[in-house]
C-alpha cells in the first residue's frame, strides 16, 4: 500500500479501531501527524556490548543467545516471573521479566537476541530486568538512537516508533520546504525533510542537533510571523478619535502621577487620538498604579462621547474597579455601570438598555461584558485588566465585539489636544470602527516570552512605584515558627492593621495548585478558617472567601474586609490579582512551596499598598532545601521582572505559556531556557520579514503563509 501523509493510521496493518482511537488521543490520526509527534528524549542503543564489558548501572545493549527454555514461576497471586538464561562466548546473563508470560514463547533457545536494559551483577553472572529485546540483526529497536515518544495507555513506544519509521521512510518525499531559501541560508538551517527525518531517527547526536535547531527556529519563526501578521492587520483597523490630555485628567486625582504613569498615559493619548485602532499592553508590577492609567483611557472615551468597557478576570475585581472608576470619574460627570454574571433580572435589563442607548459611558465587568445580549451604543475602547488570564483569542473577540458602524458624536471639548503629538487635523469618524484595545498585565514576563505572548501588541512599561512605598519585608518560615507568627498577626491587628492568610486549593483557575495532589481541599480551607476563628484568634474578626463561593456570598465578606470590619481574611488565591486594601499590612501564604514565584509576588503585592510597614510571611513545611531556596528569591528582591526570570529558569515556561492562559499554539520543540539565542534570532527574522511583506504576498512566502494559517487554525478568521 502506498502511504501518504494523509493516510489514516487505521489503514495500517496492526492498527485496528481500538488502537486507532488511542492514537487519536495523542492527536495522531494520519501518517502526517506522526511526523509532528516528536520524541521527548532518546536512548542511545547504538553500541552493543559483550556481557563481560557491559557497563553497569546504566541502560545499554548486550547480545546473547538464549540458552534454555524460559521458566515461568508464579510468585504470588498477580505476580508471574519469566526467567531466562542467556549466554555469549564469555559470560552468562540472567533475565527476569515480570508479568509477561507470553515471552515464554517469544524467546527461543538457540536464538541470539539483543537485549536493552540496565545490567546488574550477581557474583560473576550478569542480570537484567524487563529489558527490551529483538532478534539480533533486525535493527528496529536496538543498534540505533531510539526515539522515545509521549505515550498513552495501550500504545507502546515500540508501536509508535514502528509507525513513525514508516512515516519517515515513506511519507517525507512530498514534504515541501516552506522557509524562504534566503532565511534558511542566512541562519544555517537544514531542510524540512532532513529535519523531520533526523528528529525521529538521528544517526548521531550531531544530526539530531542540526534537525532540532531547524525545528526550534521554525516553530518560533512561524509563531512570530503569525503574531506580527495579527498585529499588522489590527493596526490597520480604524479607531475612534479620542482626544484628551493626561494633565487635564490628572486634576481629578488626589495624588500626583508618577513619571511612568504620565509617560504611559501620553503613549495612550497618542494612540487614542491617532485614528487607528490601538492594541497596547501595559506591563506593570503589582502596585505600580495601572488602574489610574485605565481610568485615563475611560475618561478620554467618555469625554469624546464614546463608551469604554473595562473587563476584569473576577467579579471581585470587577466590583472593586467599578468602585474605583466611579469615585474617580463621577465628579467629571461620567456615568459608570457594573455588569457581571450576578447582575440579573431588572437590574441587568436596565443596565443593558442604558448601554445600548449610550446612557452609560463606562461599564466595568467580567466576561459577561461580551455575552451575546450585550449591545453597545458606541464602544470605542476595551480595557482588559490582569491580562495574563486572557489570550490572543479573547483579545481578537473583544475587538470584534466593539467593531461596527456608528457615528462618533462630537461631545465635550477637545481643546488642548492640538498640542498633543502626532494627532491628525481632521478625522472622519463615520463608518466602521475597531475599538481600541488596552490590556494590562500585572505579571511581569521575561522579555523573550513577552515578545511571543504579546507579539501582537505594542507595549508600555510602568516601571515605577508610586512614592511612599516601603518594600514589603519577606520571610520564609517553617512550622516551628507558627506560634510566633500568630502572635505577630495579633500585634499587627492591635495596631489597627489587617491581615490576609492565603491557602492553596484546587481550583480551575489556579495553575499552582493543579499539579499538587496534596493541596488541601476546600474543606481544609474552610476548617482552617474555623480553627483560626475559634481557637487561634477568638478575639479577632476572621472572614473567609474562596473560589467556589458564589459572588453574592463573596461580596459581603470582601466589602467587610475593605471597610475594616474584618481583621483577618482567610482565602484561596481568588485574591491573587488586583485586590486593593491599603490598610492590609500582612500577607501570610500557607504551603508557599506550592506556588510559582510570580504568583507569590502577586500575592505579596496585596500588601504594602498604604503607608504602613508591611510583611509577607511564606509558610512552608517542606524540608527540601531547594524549595526553600526558591522561596528565598522573594526575600532577596521586589522586582517582578527579576522574579519572573527566576521562575522561568526554575519552573520552565509552563506557567507563563500555558495554552489555557494565552490561547497561543503550544510549542513542541523550543525550550525557553535553553534556546534563548535561537529564539531571538527567529523572532527578529520574523518581524523583519513581516515588515517587508506584511501580507506574505510574495510568491516565495506562499507556503510560509499556509503554515502560519495552519498554526493559527483556531483563529482562522484572522488569516483569511
Ligand atoms: P496595580 O498596578 O497593581 O493595579 P493599582 O492601580 O491598584 O495598582 O494601584 C495601587 C494603589 O496605588 C492604589 O491604592 C492607587 O490608588 C495608588 N496609586 C496609584 N497611583 C498613585 C500615585 N501616582 N501616587 C500615589 N498613589 C497611587
Ligand atoms: Mg490592578
Work out the radius of gyration.
31 Å
Instruction: Report the biggest beta sheet as strand number plus sense, adding barrel if it closes.
Output: 9 strands, mixed
Low-confidence stretches: 410-429, 506-521, 657-662
On the 0 to 100 scale, the average pLDDT is: 84
Strand content: 15-25%
Categorize the overall geometry: globular
| Helix proportion range | 25-40%
Helices, strands, pairings?
Elements: H1 17-25, H2 31-36, E1 41-44, E2 48-49, E3 59-66, E4 71-76, E5 79-87, E6 92-98, H3 103-106, E7 112-118, E8 120-122, E9 125-129, E10 132-135, E11 145-148, H4 157-170, H5 181-186, H6 192-200, H7 205-235, H8 246-250, H9 259-273, E12 279-284, H10 290-303, E13 307-311, H11 315-329, E14 336-339, H12 345-357, E15 362-365, E16 379-384, H13 392-402, E17 404-405, E18 432-433, E19 436-441, H14 447-453, E20 458-462, E21 473-477, H15 482-494, E22 498-502, H16 511-514, H17 522-536, E23 542-545, H18 551-562, E24 568-571, E25 584-589, H19 597-604, E26 615-619, H20 625-636, H21 640-651, H22 654-657, H23 659-662, H24 676-692, H25 702-711
Parallel strand pairs: 2-3, 6-9, 12-19, 12-20, 13-15, 13-16, 14-15, 16-19, 21-26, 22-24, 22-25, 23-24, 25-26
Antiparallel strand pairs: 1-11, 3-5, 3-7, 4-5, 5-6, 7-10, 8-9, 17-18
The structure holds adenosine-5'-diphosphate (ADP) and magnesium ion.
